[in-house]
Amino acid sequence: MNNVIVVASGKGGTGKSTVCICLSVALVRQGKKVLLIDCDCGMRGLDIMLDIEQDILFDASDAVCGNCSFGEAVYKSKNNDNLFLMAAPFDAENELSPSVFRQLVASVRQNFDYVIIDSPAGIGSGFVTACAPADRALIVTNAEPTGVRGAVKVRTRLEALGIADVRLVINRFDKRLFRRLGFYADLDAVIDASQTQLIALVPFDLNISVVMQQGAASAAGGAVFPPFERLARRVEGERCPLVLKGML
Known about the structure:
This protein is of the alpha/beta class. The chain is built from 10 helices and 8 strands.
């Protein structure tokens, strides 16, 4: 099963980490056991967004250096029984190499239905490390030119790294703002410009941002997550609508 998914973006601010958490929670709602791995060394944030910041004693670098067991570097979400997190090193100089990270993921992936890797934005060394064990990738962008340009660069780099199964998530989509800005004629033009097949369109929803900053993402919070539930179903290979009536 191709169950290791790297989530990437060409630029910061697209909501990539929010997509990681919301997708993971949606998969948990579908009965899956999920490990989130934060690969943004020096800038980690998933622990805050899951409200387990104070629980983190060990991170991925501790596990590979022998400071703890792999199991001790994996922390359970307070709000989701089958969601777990491995935090990124707090210091950027402890960034793992691609080969070491590949071995780390290989040692734990069999214990989970999905491993979701939150890559740092851009296509630098941290991105290369995050991609090393991945079977497939999601690129997160917003429907504006700088985000789309970044998505193309990420797509090109993913292909060079041997990851062919790549899909696009357009996040924080506001149809009124999209039309007013007029950068693209329609959503199809965004997809064409990104050169990547769309798997999810997530509308702008202030409630999602509030839940993330409060660390309150929960499988019980169904009202917040319908777009991500559709994304999770599509990740699972199910046929379901990309968008609902009224989103475009």
